[in-house]
Amino acid sequence: MDYIRQTLIEIKNIFTSKFLLILGILVMLMSIAMPVLSAVSGDPSKASSFLSGGYSEGQYDYYKSEGQEAIVVDGVTIEPDNPFYWNIKQFDEEQNYMDSSNFEHPEAYDLVMEMGQMERDYYLRFAKQITSYKDYRSNLAWYGSQSLYDKYIYEHNDVDLDTLKEALNWRRGVDETTFETTYIKITPEQRQAGIDKAEENLERIYKVVEDNDFAEFIAISIEQMNDQIDDMNKQIDALQANIADLETQKAAAEQEYNNMVTQNADTDALTQQTKKIESLQTQIKSIQDNIDSYKKNIQTTQDVSIPMLQYRLDNNIVPNDGSWQDTALTSKESNLSQLAYTTIVTEEQFNSQEYQYLKQQYGTYPAYTAAIQKQIDEFNKNVIIAEQSLESGKPDMSFVPDGARNQTANFLYFSVFVALLAVVIGGWLMASEFQFGTIRLLMIRPKTRTKIYTSKFMAGLVLCLGVYIAGALVNLILNGILFGFGDFANPNYSVGGPTGFFGYYLPKFFACMITILFGYCVAFLLSTVVKNIAVSIAVPIICFVGCFVAMSLFSDHSYMSSAMPVWMTYTPLPYVQVSSFFVETSAVNKLIDFGAPIHIGYGLGLLSGLSVICALIPLWVFKRRDITN
Fold first, then answer.
1. Which pLDDT tens digit goes with each residue over 510-544?
2. What distance in Å separates the CA atoms of residue 570 and residue 597, rounded to the nearest whole number?
3. Higher-confidence position of 45 and 507
4. What's the pLDDT tens digit per position in 189-208?
């Protein structure tokens, strides 16, 4: 009891410092300010940006037309943020600078203007109904434009061929290998059939746009996917035909090579033939790789995209509708696509000139394979999480970015600010006694030096951890009030299955305490040994900031990450800011993705061990030092 009483006295003494009291209050206020700012701003990602490591613009902000004026077409006002603003405005601008002198065939100018007017009318129909890039119907504009031009070309296939090609090259481009056989050298019946098919496609698209017909959108999208599959199959057939030709040429080259050897041809000729054979082998391998890529793409399209579209229709999950189901389904589709294209090259390929960029980025082949395998595992994990969420009907927190769970988990960065408070308190506690001469008053008390030291040490540590726990608890309650306590009831998913949110959150919460403990112990060590407040506070803060800057620099570019000495991963440098391990875009996680051998378990053990050492050394010094001031 006497020891606890002494510790409480020391805590009270800390509160007598107005500077420390105000600093502690400011840190505590952050736990209240963050959820309130998130709720008021309506954008939690922006409001918490300085805690989570920076704000990135929304997915669709890229398309905003800042500083542009609205345009009026046929009595319809098109705002600058409309997805089809520039498609419509482009025609008006062309009229100002384009004339017949720009064309080899003057008649082509009239066709270009006619097509421009056609495009403007086409996009105007979209602009009247669609005002956001997030609207799923906006994707149909590009698909429908092909039918729009098919119809136009069929209707004008009696125009002079060179004039028509010149006009089309201004607008869309011409495939010289198929243009004439597709559009020009056809029968009247084929021409009319082409016009009818184009008109049918356009009417279906207009129906989706104007009636918001989601079922028809899915049907069109599936047909589009099947058309892509047919086109890729044709490309595969062409590539396989090329392979047969190249194999024939290779056999002929090898035969020629053997004949030349028999005839004792000179060395130069032999070298040339050998290079020719090697070149053919390289071309064959390249084409085979292309075929594999096409096959992989077809596999992805057939087994992923079409069922996904059907799943959306069956469950009425509209793209970009803001629902967590759409986010989960998009995540699954994206990660499956990434899996289809993520492969690990052989060690021979890794060391070849063609893949030098991989060697520059990852350094060694084991580091490369570990990093790519980690990516593959991450893609698989994300697919499993999305599937579990959709099957259970309860969202993982990653699919509810503005939910109470995400707000609470993002606040783990609060530990960084409490750690800075801990550095200030730890650096002030003992050094202030020496600098102000009050250490002699402590020595005359009937207390052992060990008790004096440990009571001061524990007082500061308990206060810092108390601020951390209290701040996090206040933040959690406010997040529940502002964003819904019900979100806490939803499980978090992993490869192993669902877990409650607090089973996910609390281990991370306690892990972040290590940052506070380490900062406090280092500052307390300097405070006792150096006996100078400014040095005891400034040095840990400078080192803390230095660690953050160094990690950011090494993670900024892949070539920098490979330049990071391996021995640094065994120092506290990557681990000081433990909360960064729980943010996907942090510098530490970027380095891990680049293959750096950074492991949070090792880091927590290292910081804990160093904290114990930093706590014991000043005790040993304090017990043996003569008190002279």
1. 999 999 999 999 999 999 888 899 999 999 999 98
2. 9
3. 507
4. 999 999 999 999 999 999 99
Q: State percent of the chain over pLDDT 90.
A: 41
CA end-to-end distance (rounded Å), the chain? 30
Which class for 82: exposed (0-12), middle (13-18), buried (19 or more C-beta within 10 A)?
Answer: buried
Give the residue extent of every domain in the chain: 2-23+402-624, 79-212, 322-393
Give the count of beta carbons closer than 10 Å to the beta carbon of residue 144.
23
Quick one: which of 114, 590, 130, 603 has its CA closest to 375?
A: 590
Tokens 């090329």 correspond to 242
> pTM to 2 decimals?
0.72
Alpha helices per DSSP H over 48-100 = 49-52, 85-97
Beta bridge partners of 498: 493
The values of phi and psi at residue 498, to 5°, are -80, 150
Q: Which residue has the higher pLDDT, 358 or 47?
A: 358
CA 586 to CA 555: how far, in whole Å?
A: 9
C-alpha pair distances (Å), 621 with each of 3, 181, 525, 533, 624: 21, 93, 10, 17, 5
Residues 6+ away with beta carbon under 8 Å from 81: 63, 64, 65, 131, 132
CA count, 13 A, side-chain hemisphere, 588: 21
The closest alpha carbon to 322, from 136, 486, 494, 138, belongs to: 136
Q: How far apart are CA 90 and CA 593, in angstroms?
A: 43
Per the prediction, the chain carries an average pLDDT of 82
Q: Distance (Å, rounded) from C-alpha 358 to C-alpha 351?
A: 9
The DSSP code for 346 is P
Whole-number Å distance between alpha carbons of 521 and 380: 41
Residue 218's contacts (CB-CB under 8 Å, 6 or more residues apart) are 309, 310, 312, 313
CA distance 457 to 619: 10
Coil, strand or helix at 83: coil
Phi-psi region of 42 (alpha: psi -120 to 50; beta: other; left: phi over 0): left
Note the Cα 141 to chain centre separation in Å: 27
Determine the distance from the C-alpha atom of residue 11 to the mean position of all C-alpha atoms in its chain, rounded to a whole number: 44
CA distance 233 to 298: 8
Report which secondary-structure segment, H or E, holds 78.
strand 76-78
Site of tokens 């990557």? 574
The 10s digit of each residue's pLDDT in 570-608 is 899 999 999 999 988 888 888 887 777 889 999 999 999
Band of the pLDDT at 427, cuts 50, 70, 90?
Answer: very high
Compute the distance between CA of residue 394 and CA of residue 492 in angstroms, rounded to an integer: 9
Query: What does 240-270 look like in DSSP terms, one character per residue?
Result: HHHHHHHHHHHHHHHHHHHHHHHTT--HHHH
pLDDT surpassing 70 at residue 617? yes
Tell me if residue 72 falls in helix, strand or coil: strand
**Burial code of 561-592, b = ≥16 C-beta within 10 A, e = fewer?**
bbebeeebbeeebbbbbbbbbbbeebbbbbbb
Amino acid at 333: E
Kindly state the percentage of the chain with pLDDT values over 70.
Answer: 81
pLDDT in tens, 221-274: 888 877 777 777 776 777 677 667 766 766 676 666 565 544 444 455 545 655
DSSP class of residue 160 equals: -
